[in-house]
Amino acid sequence: MQKTYVIDTNVLIQAPTAIECFEDNHVVIPLVVVEELDSLKKGEGEIGANARKAVRILEKYRTLGDLLLGVAMDNGGTLRIEKNFKDVELPEDLPESKSDNRILKVCKGLKEKNPNEEVILVTKDLVLRLKGHIVGIKAQDFQREQISEDDANYTGRCEVFIPDDELTGFMKNGTDIQNVYQVDEAGNRIDTDLVENEFVILKSDISLKKTVLGRVSGNRIVPLEYQNYKPYGVTPRNVGQYFMQEALMADAGKAPLVIVQGMAGTAKTFYSLVVGLEKTYNCPTREYRRILICRPNAQFDDDIGFLPGDEQEKIAPLMRPIIDNLEQILDSDEEERYKNEDELSGKISEIFDREIIQMEALNFIRGRSIVKTYLIIDEAQNMTPNQVKGIITRAGKDTKIILLGDPNQIDKPFLDEKTNGLSYAAKHMKGSPLCWQIVLSAEECERSNLAMDAINRL
Question: What pTM does this model have?
Answer without folding.
Answer: 0.84
